[in-house]
Amino acid sequence: MSIAIFASGNGSNFEAIVRYSREQNWTTSVSLLVVDREDAGAIERAKRLEVPYYVVSPKHFPSKLEYEEALLELMEKHGVEWIVLAGYLRIVGDTLLEPFEGKMVNIHPSLLPSFPGLHAVEQAWGYGVKVTGVTVHFVDAGLDSGQIIAQRAVEVDEMDTIDMLTNKIHEVEHQVYPETIWKVVTGEVAYSPMIIVVSG
Ligand code: GRF
């Protein structure tokens, strides 16, 4: 059994997870990185860390269905039990999601349900919030809407610039994501999606 990490960009969370998993001697290890772009910075990190990586670009498939079928095949080939999204800039479709329901997690740079979607740090900054943070959640069919597993607050100081805030959020992500992944993988945190009923 193993973990696959999916990324589209820089890959700093990917690296933090791999390093932590090695320090802590995880019995379920990160066996591969999947990126959807040839220019993802995560590739260089995978080479350095000697983690096998695959570039699977949706551009090379006629449809999202076929793209995700190829990903699923890759997961089966590597005995992947858990998918960790770390800056993977795509909405996961049913083809991949259904077999991994409750086995796929994501990290988002805000305190969800505030500021879902792209540019969450910029959205929070633009809104003038005084506290933001990071959220780790199970993935469902919505946009950053799955069951919340862990959150950590980050204060916005008066002297902060948006770059400083972004860096603070990344630092917190690099701590909270690896720790939370291990809690999920070991069953300390269970998947129990709720139906939220808003009335009134
Ligand atoms: C992180 O801020 C994460 O919360 C968001 O995408 C960013 C990825 O950063 N989902 P990196 O590629 O891991 O450096």
TrEMBL record:
Keyword Transferase applies: yes
Family: Belongs to the GART family.
PROSITE patterns recorded: GART
Annotated N(1)-(5-phospho-beta-D-ribosyl)glycinamide binding sites: 11-13
Domain Formyl transferase N-terminal: 1-181
Site (Raises pKa of active site His): 144
EC nos: 2.1.2.2
Stated role: Catalyzes the transfer of a formyl group from 10-formyltetrahydrofolate to 5-phospho-ribosyl-glycinamide (GAR), producing 5-phospho-ribosyl-N-formylglycinamide (FGAR) and tetrahydrofolate.
Record lineage: Bacteria, Bacillati, Bacillota, Bacilli, Bacillales
GO molecular function: phosphoribosylglycinamide formyltransferase activity
Xref: NCBIfam families: PurN
Protein origin, superkingdom: Bacteria
CDD domains assigned: FMT_core_GART
Catalytic activity: N(1)-(5-phospho-beta-D-ribosyl)glycinamide + (6R)-10-formyltetrahydrofolate = N(2)-formyl-N(1)-(5-phospho-beta-D-ribosyl)glycinamide + (6S)-5,6,7,8-tetrahydrofolate + H(+)
Protein's name in the database: Phosphoribosylglycinamide formyltransferase
Gene Ontology annotations of biological process type: 'de novo' IMP biosynthetic process
Keywords: Purine biosynthesis, Transferase
Metabolic or biological pathway: Purine metabolism; IMP biosynthesis via de novo pathway; N(2)-formyl-N(1)-(5-phospho-D-ribosyl)glycinamide from N(1)-(5-phospho-D-ribosyl)glycinamide (10-formyl THF route): step 1/1
Catalytic residues identified in the record: 108
Binding site for (6R)-10-formyltetrahydrofolate: 64, 89-92, 106
Pfam families: Formyl_trans_N (PF00551)
InterPro entries: Formyl_transf_N, Formyl_transf_N_sf, GART, GART_AS
GO cellular component terms, A-Z: cytosol
